[in-house]
């Protein structure tokens, strides 16, 4: 993972050109291996509200329910260090969370031949953030052998240019995701 420090601002990342090229060449981040559905990122009720009209038009479910397992919650702890108690409250074990629906072959039902068919503002926060992520105030990029953007860019700054975004925009998206799950900033205790 690469890292840089950031500050918040706008909320739109233009991924359309990158995702369309990726969809032609790679499996994309919008496909998972069949049987790995439990590892799909959860969808908040706020995101569900944005997905529902598009799903109705397509005649597909906007989300499916997935059990909250210990493995799932532990994976979230790695992405949100310091939020353990809030994550356990948001995703109680043996209850259910929403995730995007996928085909039997592992493709997101909102994936078209040119990438995601959802308008950018209606896409789930995680989808709009990928391949970027924040841990505290540091932005990272996920590495993937199947991500055209990551494989064609030598730096985080290059990825910003490719996605026509910046640190404040990404920070705002990440903050929106945390707020949708009611994961509020945790005061870190000084030692």
Overview of the structural elements:
Helix content is 38%, strand content 14%. The chain has 191 residues and is of the alpha+beta class.
Identify the notable features of this structure and list them briefly.
191 residues; alpha+beta; disordered N terminus; disordered C terminus; 38% helix; globular; three-stranded antiparallel beta sheet; 8 strands
Oligomer: single chain
Low-confidence stretches: 1-11, 187-191
* Major sheet strand order: 1-8-7
Using DSSP, what is the number of strands? 8
The main sheet comes to: 3 strands, antiparallel
* Mean pLDDT over the full residue set: 85
Radius of gyration, Cα only, in angstroms?
16 Å
Q: What's the overall geometry?
A: globular
DSSP strand content? 5-15%
Backbone structural class: alpha+beta
Helix content: 25-40%
Q: Number of helical runs?
A: 8
Elements, N to C (H/E): EHEHEHHEEEHEEHHH
Describe, in short, the structure shown.
38% of the residues lie in helices and 14% in strands. It contains eight helices and eight strands.
Topology of this protein?
Blueprint: E1 2-5, H1 16-25, E2 42-43, H2 45-58, E3 64-67, H3 70-79, H4 84-90, E4 96-99, E5 111-112, E6 115-116, H5 125-129, E7 132-135, E8 138-141, H6 148-152, H7 156-162, H8 167-180
Antiparallel strand pairs: 1-8, 2-4, 3-4, 5-6, 7-8
């Amino acid at each position: 993972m690469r890292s840089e420090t950031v500050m918040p601002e706008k909320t739109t990342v233009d991924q359309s050109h990158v995702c369309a090229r990726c969809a032609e060449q790679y499996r994309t981040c919008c496909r998972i291996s069949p049987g790995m559905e439990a590892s799909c990122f959860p969808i908040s009720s706020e995101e569900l509200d944005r997905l529902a009209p598009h799903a109705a038009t397509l005649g597909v479910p906007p989300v499916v329910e997935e059990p909250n397992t210990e493995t799932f919650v532990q994976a979230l702890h790695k992405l949100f260090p310091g939020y353990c108690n809030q994550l356990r409250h948001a995703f109680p074990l043996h209850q259910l969370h929403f995730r995007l629906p996928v085909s039997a072959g592992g493709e997101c039902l909102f994936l078209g031949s040119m990438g995601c068919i959802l308008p950018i503002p209606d896409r789930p926060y995680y989808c709009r953030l990928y391949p970027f992520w924040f841990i505290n105030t540091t932005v990272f990029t996920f590495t993937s052998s199947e991500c055209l953007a990551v494989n064609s860019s030598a730096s985080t700054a290059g990825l910003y240019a490719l996605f026509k975004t910046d640190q404040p925009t990404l920070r705002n998206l990440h903050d929106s995701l945390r707020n949708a799950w009611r994961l509020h900033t945790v005061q870190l205790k000084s030692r």
